[in-house]
Amino acid sequence: MKYNIDRQKVLLSLEMGEKINQTFETFATHNNVKSAWVNGIGAIKNPEVGYYLVKNKSYTKRVFEGIYELTSLIGNITNKDGKPFCHTHITFSDNNFNVFGGHLFEAEIAAAGEFQLLLYNKNIERKMNSNIGLALWCFAEND
Q1: How far is CA 46 from CA 43, 93, 105, 115, in A?
Q2: Is 23 helix (H, G, I), strand (E, B) or coil?
Q3: Distance CA 124, CA 77 (A)
Q4: At a CB cut-off of 8 Å and minimum separation 6, what does 126 contact?
């Protein structure tokens, strides 16, 4: 990973073989990131994505074997259980221009990954919402 920090913005260039969410979480840990918004593009390999079934409180997961164009990644970095947690969604396409998407569990950079993080000065904690079955943003003054 290579990066450049300019005030509250970070440009990250992930290298071939790096895992996206894992790299964001490592960056957040080493750079004391309180919370951030993430977006980016690139080329990915073997993405594992999911669709959340609220009724079942569980994900349906699928690994897409091969190399894909990462047409869009969007998400955030917050805190869960005392450490950085990356929550991302992606859309990606194959060489026939078919597009897929969903919640990103993880994907590896296949060629290049170019991302931007917008940093925030407040910690956002995630706490389990038992009605939904997910750890959601918790704003102490409002919850």
Answers
A1: 10, 12, 11, 19
A2: helix
A3: 9
A4: 78, 79, 80, 85, 135, 136, 137, 138
- Eight-class DSSP state of 99: E
For tokens 């078919």, the residue is 98
pLDDT at 44: 98
- Give the chain's domain count: 1
- pTM greater than the 0.90 cutoff: yes
Report whether pLDDT(97) > 60: yes
Query: What percent of the chain is predicted at pLDDT more than 70?
Result: 98
Task: Say if 47 falls within a structural domain.
Answer: yes
Report the sign of the C-alpha dihedral through residues 104, 108, 113, 117, in that order. Answer: positive
CA atoms within a 13 Å half-sphere pointing along the CA-CB vector of 42 = 28
Amino acid at 115: F
Q: What is the CATH number of the domain that holds 113?
A: 3.30.1330.80
